[in-house]
Amino acid sequence: MFLREKLDVLDNWAKKEERKPLILRGARQVGKTTLIRMFAENFEQYIELNLEKQDDRRFFEGENDIKDIVKAIFLSRDKVVNGKKTLIFIDEIQNSPYAVKMLRYFYEDYGQLFVVAAGSLLESLLKFKESFPVGRIEYMYLYPFTFREFLSAKGKNGLIEALNEIPFARLLHDELLKNFSEYALIGGMPEIVKSYLKFEDIVEISPIYETLLVSYMEDVEKYAKSEKQKTVLRYVIRSSFKEAGKRIKFEGFGDSKYKYREVKDALATLEKAMLIQLLFPTVSTTPPISEKFRKSPKIHLLDTGLVNYFAGAQREFILNRYLEDIYSGTIAEHIVGQELFATEYSQFRKPTFWVKEKKQSNAEVDFVYQFMDMIIPVEVKAGKTGKLRSLMQFVDAAPHNFAVRVYSGKFSVENSKTIAGKKFKLLNLPFYLVGEINKYLERLINYSD
Predict the structure, then answer these.
(1) Cα 166 to Cα 171, 402, 441, distances in angstroms
(2) φ, ψ of residue 252 in degrees (nearest 5)
(3) Could you check whether the bond before residue 281 is cis, i.e. omega within 30 degrees of 0?
(4) Which domain holds residue 121?
(5) N or C: less crowded end of the chain, CB within 10 Å?
(6) Is 248 found in the same domain as 387?
(7) Do 379 and 256 fall within a single domain?
(8) Three-state DSSP class for 63?
(9) 91 and 203: one domain?
(10) What is the DSSP track for 296-330?
């Protein structure tokens, strides 16, 4: 089992006095079950239910009272209801609408129990709109491994310690960049990382990528209401990997003949399953970030390693060893987005990208990221240099004077100036420090004061 940073979030949840049942959300195969089993080591009793199994699902059939359900569950596992700190994990909860409904009664009648549920977000949203216990549950999101977690899996504790230091040891720059490039190559899917560390061979783990991709396609196709919808979903999910990191149009997506509504519905299905995220642009330079849903979005996939495998780009990565010149920076931008999504705790404050409001302008900043009461522009450059015209236009329009460039060069802070003459602080972050962006932004802003 690999250490996951979300264990700290689970610990904080468990310490709450007014604790609600927790729904752990995330795509399949990102490690939800493994995470909860690790968390269970903190409890005197642990009960795991998998509602794909009839033996476990039967507890929620017949619409029994919550007291009868709890009693039956504990007796079946030879556990005692009261007196011991108990964690109950209800996996694949989407298979029982009544189990979803019962979460509110776990909260109201059995607050002493620690209840976590997980399952397919897609299935839950489609089946249980009315029975979902709104206001009686909490949510937590799990993504593929972050770079920190990747280093932990490799046993690189010294490099993790280096990341903890601000500023970090500059002499470790090459070693950290090399490891980040490796992370960008294979991605953060737990099973992939585990096998890669065992075999240290991309060819050896190719069948695992293949199995994951096929399982995602088959899983999503289950929810098509017709053969036509199934065909559209199959095409859209394949095309999504090809379009990763790019701005897209719904009409004719992926050079298809599919209509706007067909593609939009298919992408919405993939987004609910957390296989993709559609990032709509914003013109905001002050909080809150307001997305423009009539403008073309960018498409972000669950994991960069899966994107690389699907595109056959891993051999090119192996030859180059670094992020320069791969996909003209598309993969570099995609892995930065992956780190930023994992850093943000709320789905309502996810990073997006910025465009200038004027129609004739083509200014576009790769990401904007809300930090404290500011929206910070983040530009990604695959190499060590690159023009920052769009970022400077954002700075000119913003009420603050801070910006971030993510690149393969070393950490630094520049006193810079826009083309229009506005002075600003440019935080130059190496790729491997993206996951530490909050600490460095806090340092930059406080130091500037």
Answers:
(1) 14, 19, 11
(2) 70, 25
(3) no
(4) 6-141
(5) C
(6) yes
(7) yes
(8) coil
(9) no
(10) PPEEEES-HHHHHHHHT-HHHHHHH-SSTTSGGGH
